[in-house]
Amino acid sequence: xxxxxxxxxxxxxxxxxxxxxxxxxxxxxxxxxxxxxxxxxxxxxxxxxxxxxxxxxxxxxxxxxxxxxxxxxxxxxxxxxxxxxxxxxxxxxxxxxxxxxxxxxxxxxxxxxxxxxxxxxxxxxxxxxxxxxxxxxxxxxxxxxxxxxxxxxxxxxxxxxxxxxxxxxxxxxxxxxxxxxxxxxxxxxxxxxxxxxxxxxxxxxxxxxxxxxxxxxxxxxxxxxxxxxxxxxxxxxxxxxxxxxxxxxxxxxxxxxxxxxxxxxxxxxxxxx
Length: 273
Description:
The protein is 34% helix and 26% strand. The longest helix has 12 residues. By secondary structure, it is of the alpha/beta class. It folds into 2 domains: 152 residues, Rossmann fold; 104 residues, 2-Layer Sandwich (Hypothetical Protein, Haloacid Dehalogenase-like Hydrolase, Chain: A, domain 2).
């Protein structure tokens, strides 16, 4: 895809890409995000986080209207509060899986109605330790399964944290019986979402809603959950700290998340318009 095309939309992964290793957005990245917006580029955060846990630095800025959350389970128009795309786990399915996999050795978090729900105060404290102000709106629950069972809402995403190998095996075995779900393992946890929920599918929904073509879209990411965005966008950037496969698939590799890679990508885009 030619780089000289005018890009109208830039989808940006958050953790590991726009945020540095201290879970902060640098002043340099913020400066160039503002410049991109001033040049008419639609900035679309694309994150695995729930909507209420977006980076607090972005919440203070008037930089975006549409946001992809929970790894593509939802696209929300924050000016109206309405979702323009949803690909959710049915409530009954989510509760069944939580009951099968819960218990000793497993900590659970759930995204429901854009909220980040956490089982117990320990996980909530660990979240605040890692994400600081961004985790301030997380809601700690004593019995997260009972809470989910009592809700009338389907689920955007489940996250199971493993404190033992047997807990991980229990989850892996259970998920074999749910072909309608996708699972992404990383270290000691797994993210679970509908097979119809990907950042790429969500990005396509934004493009359709705004009548923007693929060739007018760019994206930047670092992880395996960003591959689907790469397949959808016309111009793809990978930060230097990205997984090897994503860097191989990128049109251009920029500096790492600790070296303002997002700012570098935006400078490149603006220079060719």
